[in-house]
Amino acid sequence: MKVVILSVIAFVLGSLPTGLLVAKARGIDPRQAGSGNIGATNILRTAGRGPALLTLTGDVLKGAMAVVLARYFDVGIFYEGIIGFFAVLGHNFSVFLKFRGGKGVATSIGMLSIYSPQTGLFAIIIWLMTALITRYSSLAALVSFGILPIGVLFLDTREKLPVICLMSLMIFIRHKENIIRIIRGTEPKVGAR
């Protein structure tokens, strides 16, 4: 019962639409501009660096706080990950946005920063390297989360592998349109408006 209640709390926490709130404060609805996404990359395109940084921070904190909460209530390693994943699901399918939302990259990174810090750092390094080389945020996410399950095997315990695989799968599902645009050569680069 404790895990169920914490999962619901994490889902609601993850549902808080940080990007939408930040952009609306500047008079912009990110759902009607750029890619239509409420994540930091589209906020960067539509509202600028400051709002994008606030969005990124808020989205990361949602994932981190969910795992901190789970750890406080001592639910065990596997359920810590599941509860953290519910924060990602909340971000992706927000109850405040009629079950629409972002792609879950920043919230996943936040979740990893507490759940498996070494793996989280690994994902950030791969994301940064890929983004700097290609200037595609979506491709950087796909590459970093695509190899994340391998990373956790070397950097942490196998007990965390199922949750990491689930998270990676969700990233790919949420980026299916980006994958099509990358293949077609129409995916916008980081900073492009």
Number of helices: 11
Determine the strand fraction and express it as a percent band.
Answer: under 5%
What gyration radius follows from the Cα positions, in whole Å? 16 Å
Helix- and strand-based class?
mainly alpha
What is the N-to-C order of secondary-structure elements (H for helix, E for strand)? HHHHHHHHHHH
Strand segment tally: 0
Helix share of residues? over 70%
Shape: globular
Distance between the termini: 46 Å
Low-confidence stretches: none
Provide the domain count: 1
* Major sheet size, sense and barrel closure: none
Which keywords apply here?
single chain; 193 residues; mainly alpha; 11 helices; 72% helix; 0% strand; globular
Short description:
The protein is mostly helical. Helices cover 72% and strands 0% of the residues.
Structure commentary:
Helix 4 crosses helix 6 (105-115), helix 7 (117-134) packs antiparallel against helix 9 and helix 8 runs antiparallel to helix 10 (161-174). It contains eleven helices and no strands. The termini are far apart. It has one domain (2-184). It is an all-alpha fold.
Write the layout of secondary structure elements.
Elements: H1 2-15, H2 18-24, H3 40-47, H4 49-72, H5 77-92, H6 105-115, H7 117-134, H8 137-146, H9 148-155, H10 161-174, H11 176-184
